[in-house]
Design a protein that fits this description.
Layout: H1 2-7, H2 11-27, H3 40-44, H4 46-63, H5 76-93, H6 105-109, H7 116-132, H8 137-154
Length: 158
């Protein structure tokens, strides 16, 4: 019945119908197509690697004489929750399957009076951790660029 009704239809409708039927075929990857580039999440080693790096950086920051003030007088549960939010945020932003439920970076850091020196200390500790885990140069550069992209929303005091 479809053939009969199409034969009496405007030729433009036939072309449109053909295009609609062909769309799924066009979307299918062919054997000759290059594979999708892995996400930063995948290139870093996934959830476990991001978790290990985040815990290492957090421990360094908490032990830092200036940075430790951000965790002083907080319970273990609150610190654990905050570290988990950081893990989820990084994993999500790096293209992983994690869902980030926290606030945006600006709102999460407003009122903390984070200054340029605080930021520089964060980056110093992050670089030390990336060295410790032997993160390859390309991924290292991508991680540092990602962190730098959040600076404007985190640093309040110029």
């Amino acid at each position: 019945m479809l053939i009969k009704s199409v034969s009496r239809t405007n030729p433009l409708k036939i072309i449109a119908l053909t295009a609609c039927l062909a769309m799924p075929l066009l979307a299918m990857p062919s054997a000759g197509m290059a594979a999708e580039k892995p996400t930063l999440y995948e290139r870093l080693g996934g959830y476990d690697a991001i978790t290990a790096v985040t815990h290492d950086v957090a421990a360094r920051l908490m032990a830092d004489p200036k940075m430790g003030r951000f965790w002083a007088h907080r319970g273990k549960d609150g610190i654990d929750r905050e570290v988990q939010l950081i893990i989820d945020f990084i994993a999500n932003q790096a293209g992983g399957p994690r869902y980030y439920t926290g606030r945006d970076m600006k709102l999460a850091h407003v009122g903390m009076r984070i200054d340029g020196e605080d930021w520089d200390r964060l980056i110093t500790h992050l670089k030390a951790t990336l060295d410790k885990f032997n993160v390859p140069q390309k991924e290292r550069a991508d991680v540092l660029a990602f962190f730098e992209s959040t600076r404007k929303d985190i640093v309040e005091v110029k």
